């Protein structure tokens, strides 16, 4: 009998956990001359995956253990992305710092959601979701600033 991965139901579509991981792996493995751009996009994608997973969990469409596993994996991805953004050589240190902070804030929100899930604390998960959305907006703003045309 083949190993079966539970499906994640998102907007009436079934997404297998291994497909989500493959998508994230492909996004992080794309050849890009700009490490900061690549890792910023990886962080944004990871953030959206967490939002979908938490929304599915809140709707009762994803089991807690599956959602916790997804958040643990994404937390590692965000930690790695933040470290790579922070270590990249750049001529825009202030913008780089904003990107690093936004990715860090995403990591904190994911860890908070994970802790809430493990404790069965739905209000904590909801608060973490709000933090995640705020950090996602901060990441988008920092990304736009970093890659805005310079005079």
List keywords for this structure.
mainly alpha; single chain; 5 helices; disordered N terminus; elongated
Whole-number radius of gyration?
16 Å
Quote the average pLDDT.
85
Summarize the main sheet: 2 strands, antiparallel
Report the helical percentage.
over 70%
Number of helices: 5
Strand order of the largest sheet: 1-2
Structural class: mainly alpha
Which residues sit in consecutive blocks of at least 5 with pLDDT less than 50?
A: 1-6, 27-33
Structure in a nutshell:
The protein has 151 residues and is mainly alpha-helical. It is built from five helices and two strands.
Description of the structure:
- The protein is mainly α and 151 residues long.
- 75% of the residues lie in helices and 5% in strands.
- It has helices at 17-29, 35-58, 64-87, 93-119, 122-146, and strands at residues 7-10, 13-16.
- The protein has a two-stranded antiparallel ribbon.
- The longest helix has 27 residues, at 93-119.
- The chain is elongated and about 50 Å long.
Topology of helices and strands:
Layout: E1 7-10, E2 13-16, H1 17-29, H2 35-58, H3 64-87, H4 93-119, H5 122-146
Antiparallel strand pairs: 1-2
Helix pairs in contact: 1-2, 2-3, 2-4, 2-5, 3-4, 4-5
């Amino acid at each position: 009998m083949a190993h079966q991965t539970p499906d994640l139901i998102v907007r009436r579509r079934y997404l297998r956990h291994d497909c989500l991981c493959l998508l994230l792996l492909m996004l992080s493995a794309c050849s890009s001359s700009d490490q900061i751009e690549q890792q910023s996009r990886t962080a944004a994608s990871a953030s959206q995956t967490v939002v979908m997973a938490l929304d599915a969990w809140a709707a009762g469409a994803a089991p807690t253990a599956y959602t916790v596993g997804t958040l643990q994996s994404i937390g590692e991805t965000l930690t790695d992305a933040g470290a790579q953004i922070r270590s990249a050589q750049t001529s825009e240190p202030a913008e780089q710092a904003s990107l690093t902070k936004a990715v860090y804030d995403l990591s904190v929100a994911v860890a908070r959601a994970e802790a809430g899930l493990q404790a069965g604390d739905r209000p904590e998960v909801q608060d973490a979701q709000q933090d995640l959305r705020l950090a996602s907006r901060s990441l988008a703003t920092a990304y736009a600033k970093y890659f805005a045309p310079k005079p």
